[in-house]
Design a protein that fits this description.
Elements lengths: L4 E6 L9 H14 L6 E7 L2 H8 L4 E4 L17 E4 L13 E6 L3 H5 L7 H11 L3 E4 L2 H10 L7 E3 L25 E5 L8 H8 L6 E5 L5 H12 L6 E5 L3 H10 L2 E4 L9 H7 L4 E4 L4 H5 L4 E3 L4 H17 L1 H13 L3 H16 L1
Parallel strand pairs: 1-2, 1-4, 2-3, 4-5, 5-6, 6-7, 8-9, 8-11, 9-10, 11-12, 12-13
Helix pairs in contact: 1-13, 6-11, 9-12
């Protein structure tokens, strides 16, 4: 048997499962754990290595993450055949030169600081990009956006879509929502930042009387205050409700019971919530911006602008179409959600590892 090649996965963001990057790290590791890779030995970087070891056993090796490893002098000195930087913002880098895989989720920061190529964040990203042996992107949009703002080196590039985070339907019988659900409601979820564009659907709700709108996510932010003010100024406090952050059980409760899922975001590297909503067979309405058409495919309906009357028309035309052929449409949404699979994604990453190490 040939000697195993060693791969280091810089996965310390797994510490925060509440974030998209934390979810990505965990689901990728979980997907890899279900596969066979006798020719490779994978090492995971994490603070709580005991927790990972209790779940995945000797499937992986483990390296205990230290904040010091972000500093050049204290970088990890052990030599690996391949280093996988699993997102573009990580400051933990190898001490010695080695084959290097960079996974890019989005370069939204580049748009905000594009006028200053010497900006610290641009320079950090460029250092990673320029030493990459290969690059993976989580969407075609992320690839397009990277090429728009940066000179990408002539190395192999791959697009590997994320999987569906919902791998099981939870028991919701004991869940007690903190907002009214007695009327039919539309649902959305996301971090309260400008690009989520929640104001567009709130403005649309001024034209809709027979439905409520429920929004989940951390609203204790500047944009959250803006949204609360918009709701108040338009007399919608009895129609638009903010839940704050929700558990997985809460998220599944609202997705299962909503009339439709709305996601008008204007900038997404990928966008997991629409996939989760489609898992429940729910009509899904997205903006046609950035990566979202890759997510919704032919199943979802799209808004190309955010005029309230237009948005209402698209919404109710889509709902009427759904109701007229409900069984077939529900099946279409569920099939679309199932096409995003973490085990499949993990197998594609393994294939990239092997191609780099050939």
């Amino acid at each position: 048997m040939s000697q195993q090649k060693t791969v280091f996965l810089e996965t310390h963001n797994i510490n925060n499962r509440a974030t998209g990057l934390g979810t990505f790290n965990y689901e990728l590791i979980k997907g890899l754990s279900e596969l066979e890779f006798e020719n490779l030995k994978l090492t995971l970087n994490a603070t709580d290595t005991k927790l990972l070891e209790s779940e995945f056993g000797n499937k992986f090796n483990y390296n205990k993450y230290s904040n010091l490893s972000r500093m050049k002098f204290f970088r990890i000195r052990k030599k690996y055949d391949l280093w996988h930087s699993v997102n573009q913002n990580i400051k933990v880098e190898p001490f010695t030169k080695t084959k290097y895989l960079l996974t890019i989720h989005d370069v939204n920061f580049a748009e905000e600081i594009s006028s200053d190529i010497n900006h610290k964040r641009n320079k950090l990203f460029l250092e990673k990009l320029n030493k990459a042996t290969a690059v993976t992107y989580i969407s075609e949009f992320a690839k397009k956006q990277t090429h728009q703002y940066f000179d990408v080196p002539n190395v192999p590039e791959y697009v590997i879509h994320n999987g569906n985070p919902i791998t099981e339907f939870l028991d919701l019988s004991s869940y007690a929502p903190n907002v009214p659900t007695d009327k039919p409601f539309f649902y959305t979820i996301g971090d309260f930042i400008e690009r989520k564009n929640f104001e567009s659907i709130i403005n649309m709700m001024k034209l809709i009387k027979d439905y409520n709108l429920i929004i989940s996510g951390n609203n204790d932010k500047k944009y959250g205050e803006k949204i609360k003010q918009l709701i108040s100024d338009n007399g919608l406090t009895n129609q638009v409700f903010l839940t704050g952050k929700v558990t997985d059980q809460g998220k599944q409760f609202f997705m299962k019971n909503c009339t439709a899922f709305l996601f008008p975001s204007i900038r997404e590297g990928f966008g997991l919530p629409p996939i989760e909503a489609m898992s429940f067979g729910k009509p899904t309405f997205l903006s046609d911006k950035t990566s979202l058409p890759e997510i919704g495919g032919d199943a979802a309906k799209y808004w190309s602008d955010f005029d309230p009357e237009y948005m209402k028309t698209v919404l109710f035309d889509g709902l009427n179409s759904f109701e007229n052929n409900k069984a077939e449409k529900e099946s279409l949404f569920k099939q679309r959600a199932a096409s995003f699979n973490w085990k499949t994604a993990a197998a594609e990453y393994l294939k990239v590892y092997n191609e780099i190490l050939m």
